[in-house]
Fold these 3 entries.
Entry 1:
Amino acid sequence: MVVHFLELAGLALRNLRGYLLRSLLTTLGVVFGIASVVTMMALGRGAEDEILREIDKLGITNVILNSVKPPASKSANETRNWVSSYGLTFNDQIQIEETVPGILHALPVHSYTERAWEGSRKEDVLVKGVTPDYFVATKTGIARGRGISADDERERRPVAVVHQQLVRSLGHYGDPLGFTLRVGDQLYEVVGVLEDEEFRGLMRKALSAPARAENEVLVPYSTVLTRIGTRSYTRASGSFQATDIELNQIIVEVEQQGHVVPVAHMLRTLLEKLHEERDYELIVPIELLEQRRRYAAVFNVVLLLIAGISLLVGGIGIANIMLATVTERTREIGIRRAIGAKRHHVMIQFLLETVILSLAGGVLGVALGQAGVAAMEWWTGWEAKFTLDVALWALLVSCGVGILSGLFPAWRASHLDPIQALRYE
Amino acid sequence: MSDSGELLIEARDVHRWYGEGEARVEVLRGVDLLVQRGEYVAIVGASGSGKSTLLSILGCLDRPGQGTYRLGGRDVLSLRDDHISEVRLREIGFVFQSFQLIPQLSTLENVEVPLFYAGVPRRERHARAKAALERVGLGHRLSHRPTQLSGGEQQRSAIARALVHDPPLLLADEPTGNLDSETGKAILALIDEIHAEGRTILLITHDLAVAKHAPRLVTIKDGEIVLDQSTRGI
Ligand SMILES: Nc1ncnc2c1ncn2[C@@H]1O[C@H](COP(=O)(O)OP(=O)(O)OP(=O)(O)O)[C@@H](O)[C@H]1O
Ligand SMILES: [Mg+2]
């Protein structure tokens, strides 16, 4: 007949219950340690997921070129010349398609901001002239209707693909397909509805989309160029300003993922040759991804360090209280030993107490962490991802903390001399 | 003193002292004690003469500073700690002078402790502990804490705990010290009963009436056995 492990656990539990408040206070260090780590992990993973999704959306085999306003000094001169002209050119796109090997295509995008209106309702929109391949290359999903077709492009049709939300905010609540969209002095027929999706930080920046992605109007590239041209006018401080940007964006789709980095390198060299100033930017999602992974690695190390320190502190707290408890219960230990408890019975009993304590702390910590995650999401709008494996790790670690912090007190308890322990007052 | 039978306790030249050098206090100075299996021995002596110290050594709780001690033929002093625990658990029931009940546990749970470490299943544990407590007349105090018991009730709980696992050797340090004469008599009758079952009993007492109850009387003075007599026929 052997003393059942569960019986000892029951004994340990009983003792802890006897000092409920003290037990709770003792385990607080572990609770907060685990809670903070769980929260941080969830936030870290949430951010990671979000960024991965965004990078994936940009297209892992894409290199994206955007026109950007060049540094102030030079453009100030040009402003006096009434027209400021900068950015990617038609020639860039042709050069890329013709000279850079290993690419599927270089998709031109020309966009301009304008105001869409219907009656008295107005919405600022970003009209984007895109080619049919744009939808595939950027994984832009069509919920209903169709995208821009080759025929649209060839015949320069006045058709548009928009978000349903835009049509709604212009006061049309019926079927958006077939709706005639007025943008400035242009009329477009809505032929497709874009899938709703969440555009966030990086994505928005990379695609130079307006703050509200619902206000994108995708139209055939050829239609925009023939109807509007490349010049756009804005009223700034009383006088008109004209900006001449041939292409706002070029999306270069690379054949193989492994070639993205060398292609990006070639594009950099090519554009440096073609442009006198930095009036473009080059976004390589795969590089962002790697950079992101490096950040994540650093983040994880820091996280681990914080976790380690807080759990160390928590563990020391438990060990400290357990040492006091052992002293306090010297007599009980003496009695148990005198009656026939073996050293390992006493050892296991005390170890179980610290493990249960610490595990309870872990469970509370995970719960608190989850609450923390929910609160953080609610306050900041950040995305967090709570996964089961984090919870399991947390419990495993707190179990380990329990064992480590209990070892010395338990050893001490089990090596008390019974006869002296019996005399202890 | 029966000459036949098997030797259970064999303590020879047992010395025990506390402190070293100048401060050294000799408590036992060469005690020789042989007890056959099935004997009933009462130990008497003045306060501070070393009775409890001797009983602790015989109960494998304490070790002599010098001398040998064999229990049931085994040299217990050379055993590993775990093995000694096992001997205490299986072969000895000990009634402490100061009861030594665990204050956090109820009376019933206190009595269950030896069975707990013997690995007896919960239900059987309850039943046996309850029976032992009924035997000492405490069947109505099962859920009381030691602090809620009178001195005599605590003493009887301690006796129940020493008997619950049916040990072949019962060592009792003043088991009737806190009892009125009626209850004391009942306990002595119980010890007689246990003795009649064939168990070996050593008890310490101040009460000469109690001492006369035992067939053999050992008198200790200043850490030495000064008298070892059979009381049969006195
Ligand atoms: N841990 C100790 N340290 C120092 N001296 C001790 C210790 N334990 C016992 N003694 C001494 O040993 C002597 C014998 O003690 P013991 O408890 O054996 O006496 P006793 O015969 O049982 O007395 P009583 O009848 O009062 O219980 C005492 O004088 C006591 O002071
Ligand atoms: Mg004594």
Entry 2:
Amino acid sequence: MKLAIQTKDFSFTYPKTKEATLKGINIPIYANKVTALIGPSGCGKSTLLRSCNRIHDVYPGNSYDGEILLYDNNGEKAENILQYKKENDLINLRQRIGMIFQKPTPFPMSIKDNITYGLKLSGIKNKTELLDRTEIALKGAALWEEVKDRLNNSAMGLSGGQQQRLCIARAVALKPQVLLFDEPTSALDPISTASIEALISELKNELTVLIVTHNMQQASRISDYTGFMYLGDLVEYDVTETIFLNPKEKKTEDYITGRFG
Amino acid sequence: MNRLLLNKIVITLSTLAALMGISFLLWILVTLSIRGYHSIDWHIFTTDLVNNGLRNVIIGQFILAGIATVIGVPVGMMAGIYLREYGINSKFAMIVRNLSDVMMSAPSIVIGIFVYGIFVVPFGGFNGWAGVIALAILMIPIVVSTTDSMLSLVPQELREAGIALGASKAQVIYKIVLSAAKIGLITGVLLAFARVIGETAPLLFTSANNNFFSFGLSNQYPSLTVSIYHLALFPSQTSQNLAWAGSAILTLLVLFINLITRFIFKPRKQK
Ligand SMILES: Nc1ncnc2c1ncn2[C@@H]1O[C@H](COP(=O)(O)OP(=O)(O)OP(=O)(O)O)[C@@H](O)[C@H]1O
Ligand SMILES: [Mg+2]
């Protein structure tokens, strides 16, 4: 099986905190699979996710330790993304690894411009290519039918679920290798949630998904692999079925059965 | 029982205080309207001060405030952007932010005298540019503070979302953050403009006044506010009437700008 990302003894410390927030994490993220991160609040799921595209670097003073290897499309050659120093390297990284946030984050511009924004940044100038890729991305995010007649309307007028799918479309348009999702449905109603879940399952044909979720059913429905985190450690990682039906660690079992967390 | 009584007393007192405030405001507006109404005729708008009109001073006021805006808004906005987006928690930014707040409450006459010392005396006399600079100095801290606080309302996730799509920090600020804060920023500019358009003290010793129409900012420059000041002190009925007319026009102007601001900033309903 091809790897997309692999962390090696990865530790992370926020500024002005004594203890590391993530302690020696080793987790493989397989290509074209959905990997879910679960665990009680504050265990470091978002911190790990946000390390994968170095979005932490928006704020100064964090320290990374160990390695996060990002593999090429063939799963062969890997680079340690923690070594990137220049802004250009980080920009390239973020074009390869997209991110969807908990709250939808449409930009205050038209629906179309939301999609073309990233494309233009990546150097695409040709008008027809921009339009084509906008259409493909919106179709890919199951949003095209709903918005094709109002591409020039403000994205702020969409419903929450539509906005979230727009954010997915925006990220997908860049053809990233990996998409990171941080509780992407926790601000949405059940119907929107179902459509986003269906979308994620669809997306893995083209890319790799790493998703943080508090919803056990969601993790078991959509993920192939699951990692259970607790207090900054990766307690257990396995095939999703095993984690939910046959966990090896007592802590995992307790969490999954709702005895704590 | 006791609490209810206290409640009533507080309500009565605060209502009275509000009424008092409003009645003074109304008094001013009514007096201005009556006096102004009697003194305003078309002649005022078509002739210059030298012929007992206000044309040159009204236009002069706009030119002074307009150029001050052109200087003050970019400087103030860039400083505000620096404070919120780049300096955020640095010592230097804290100091600048506090200084700017102090400047905002500095009496405008102090700024007038400062500019007098720096741009009037060394250049051999009153000039329009000195007035422009005084107004710009007055404006900058207002723009800094509104920019700073409007940008603080833009959710952090929006910035992160831009970065996560491969934008640089500068691109995120100029394309996403500023446009998310657009309405607030425009409001800030309008309020700052409204603030300086009615200023007298900073102009009194800087641009002084001019009876004639002029575009020459290196000489004494006409302005409505300074004219009102001189006209009101001059013991002649014509002058005093003209002062009333000028005051009424100025008040309407400021009121108008404030109303526009209100209108723009009214939170729009989604969808
Ligand atoms: N900017 C920060 N500075 C310092 N500590 C932080 C910062 N952000 C998060 N932390 C701490 O790091 C730990 C992990 O936080 P993280 O957000 O990764 O948890 P999480 O597993 O995503 O939790 P949740 O399920 O509530 O989102 C927490 O103890 C949190 O308090
Ligand atoms: Mg989290």
Entry 3:
Amino acid sequence: MNKVSKDNFKQEKYKYGFVTDIESETIPRGLNEDIVRIISKKKNEPEWMLEWRLKAFHRLKSMKMPTWAKVEFDEIDFQSLYYYSSPKGHEDKPKSLDEIDPKLIETYNKLGIPLNEQKMLAGVAVDAVFDSVSVATTFKGKLNELGVIFCPISEAIQKHPELVKKYLGSVIPVTDHFYATLNSAVFTDGSFVYIPKGVRCPMELSTYFRINASETGQFERTLIIADEDSYVSYLEGCTAPMRDENQLHAANVELVALDNAEIKYSTVQNWYPGDENGVGGIYNFVTKRGLCKGKNSKISWTQIETGSAITWKYPSCILRGDNSIGEFYSVAITNNYQQADTGTKMIHLGKNTKSKIISKGISAGKSTNTYRGLVSFHPKAENATNFTQCDSLLVGDKSKANTVPLTENSNNSSSINHEATTSKISEEQLFYCLQRGLNEEEAQSLIVNGFCKEVLQKLPMEFAVEAQKLVSISLEGSVG
Amino acid sequence: MLEIKKLNVSVEENKILNDLTLSIKTGEVHAIMGPNGSGKSTIAHTLAGNPNYRVESGSISFNGSDLLDMEPTERSLDGLFLAFQYPIEIPGVTNASYLRQILNSHRKHQGKDPIDAAEFLKLLKEKSAYLKIPMEMHSRFVNTGFSGGEKKKNEVLQMDLLDPKLIIMDETDSGLDVDALKVTADAVNQMKSKNRSLIIVTHYLRLLEYIKPDFVHIFQNGKIIESGDSSLASRIDKEGYE
Ligand SMILES: Nc1ncnc2c1ncn2[C@@H]1O[C@H](COP(=O)(O)OP(=O)(O)OP(=O)(O)O)[C@@H](O)[C@H]1O
Ligand SMILES: [Mg+2]
């Protein structure tokens, strides 16, 4: 008795699973030198950029996909994918609002991201990337007045080559690993941000990534540079249609913080996770790395990972500047057959560098959720400190949680403080809430939101409420 | 209001309640006393529908419905409230937001709109002042790190907010200081009404002296071995159960 049957709760469908019916420009399938050249040409790139890509492409031929992560999937046939797709008429550069295909405007409205500046969230500037191109960037003018550059990276390559040349690949070397190198060869769009010296960016900058075309990979490239004494808060969101196929999103994101600069980078990742039988969903293979180049600089990563069939992602900080700070706050939720292998690396190179890692993994259904982290103190990182806390919460008894925290310490003055817990969602807590009139889904969502609180409150206020809802929705259907 | 007939309940492999029969009419206040382990919390949790307590046989009717057929949530929404002997902690959830959510859940069930933030704050201030609960407690996480007495007061506050028809208080008086006991007893007396029934599980005469139950039942080995009026409580207090 008293066992709540599963049928009482219908699983709310993935809300962003629709397809926009729009004509698109694609290029032939497959990965070869011609494809790299075509992409570069489509983007009107200067010669140096093409060479940079080709170098990556040639290097890629001798590289293998990494296999150490705790994720399982069928081999990806890179020759069968499309590497470029753009809505017709948007290949060049983002247009003004009235030149954008109304279908795209409607798409973003449906996603809750109105591109019309009057309707937008006040204080948030958006770069909207649709498949392989950026279709709009809002509030550009206002930001320009302060000298803040916020534009698609393809535009930055043309307009700000000196900055791009200096920093692109400076944090994630072109030859870093398979996906990073692949991205370097075929990346299409993403955002570019430059905050000049002494400027505190007054708006949240955000990029919304949308995959629409089928059988197409999305290769995002984002570069954010915070010059001395500057501050920026940036947020990315992502969604994709529901499809039976698996689609690849392989991004490279590089952050550079100079002396006394601070970058706060938040992600709300809600790619299509596949259905309840594990069919379809995005493979999210992402390389994110920040360099605290200057003294007293700070980079913090906050991520809410609820989507994707597979998440493979380790936003990291290289703490080179003395007294620099790296932070990683993560909530990763997996349900049904989702797999997440995510965590961070904190590489302490400078003196008195500090890092903090708070990871909350929640696994429901038959999913697998792994935290993988590395904290490394180099010989010169005197008095460096790290605090790591990894908590895993299991919902039901068919899900798995793993924690793989690695440390490397090459000096005596540094300290690591590591705490890890794994708990099941407590029946007592659930019953207590039910006794007070909440239903099972509400009770679970309350408890899980409490479990994630520390991380959720790191998100920019404008997004915190949405994120809470997302946490609840991601777990729907997992009760019982 | 409540009709328990020949109820047998097991926890894991142990039979705890043996042919328990008890009838409570609307407006009545019943006290349950009995030695440790005699099954008092077991009947309380069984009434609330805790799935760890397995009903082997017997029946319970609650305002004409078959209680055993109702989910815990439904029991709560239909007016059954259990004040826990050991209230549960919910880290990361502020007490205020939790209280508002459970209140809104009941309001929704009654076809009312959710209470707005300002109105809720006013209500919370009023009720907290009455129970001498500092408002700061509501910015802390639900029961997390609360003292024993604070947890109990928080139970009484929830009871007061949700305005239930049947209240089961499982040793709410244990752990309260003298003043808190008075405040709590006052609150309970305020809640006594001809439309509401109370079951008060306690070890002490003290609370019963304030509340004055209509009936007192003595539990032993999972059943009632003696029933009487409030003088029974005084006798037990003097002589013990032996
Ligand atoms: N989960 C459990 N597993 C095994 N036995 C249990 C469990 N829960 C309760 N019991 C047993 O059931 C019996 C009745 O317990 P119950 O909690 O109802 O007692 P009580 O009358 O409320 O006691 P107290 O006055 O100490 O609160 C006890 O012997 C107890 O050990
Ligand atoms: Mg008890």
